[in-house]
Every structure is written in C-alpha cells, then in structure tokens.
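As a warm-up, study this chain.
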Amino acid sequence: MKRWIVRVAAPFWVALYIGIFKLGGVTIFVSLEVLWGVWAAALIMVCLYGLWGTIFYLVLLQSDSFEHLKGFLDRFLEKKNGKVFVWLRKKFVAETEKSVTSPLLIMLVFIVESPLTGVPLIRFDYPKEKFWTGILWIWTGAVLEVVTWFLPIYGGGFTAVKGLLSWFGWG
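Now compare it with the structure written out below.
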C-alpha cells in the first residue's frame, strides 16, 4: 500500500502544485485580492501553500527512500578523499541524530525556490520521528513564500494598477 501512495500520489501532488501554484497562482491571488483584499488573499495563499506542503510531506514520509539516500551518499563519499567530500560526508551522513540543514538554508530554499523543493529538503533532514518539526518548517516556509513573493510583487503591483486606474477615473 505504501509503495502505491508514494509512486502515484507524489507525482500527482507535484503536478497539482505546478498546475495550481506555478501556472495559476497569480490568477488565484489577484482574484482573491479583488474579492477580499490583499491581506485575506495572503492568508488564503499561506493556507494553500501550507496544506499542499503538509500533504506532500506526509506522502514523502511514507517512503524510506530518503533514509536510503543517506546510505547511498555515505557509500559514494567514503571513496572520496578531497576536503569537500570529507566535509560533505561529515555534514550529511555522519550527523544522523540531529538536523544537518541549517534553518537559514531551509528558509532560503522556500524564498528563492518554492515549497516544491523545500519540502523534500525538509523530508531529507527530518526523519519520521521528527515529523512535527518538519511540518512546522513547512508552514514557516509557506509564510515566507507569500510574504516575499506574492505580497510585494502581486499585492503591490495590483495596488499600483488599481491606484492608476482610479487616478484616470476608470476604477
């Protein structure tokens, strides 16, 4: 049962993200802005991103492939002797008890990239026993995504266009 969930649900959920947030995110946000204002639209988008990320994280928790990835990295890096490879092995393989990704990196991935890459990073970093910490980071990332992209770009742009239209007497 778990294999089916991961093999079918994860690609479906990624496609849903691309369809809704990447292709239709602006339309959704601007429509919500027109209906309820910029802050309500921002809150709804945070909820949408948070729910999407939480479900994607729970789907990824059904797979053991992230634990196997650490073993693969260990086998790959044990044959390498360069300073970078030794650091990578120490950083990502040897420290299994605590998280290896800095909170700053997690936040930057959500801000610069998206939850689509942030959620797998969180899944790699936090094992199944620490899933509540992962969910907390996903919701923090959802807030960061909306505050750094949607509010300034779409919220500010929409407000500017609306102000220009009303200045010309069209709005």
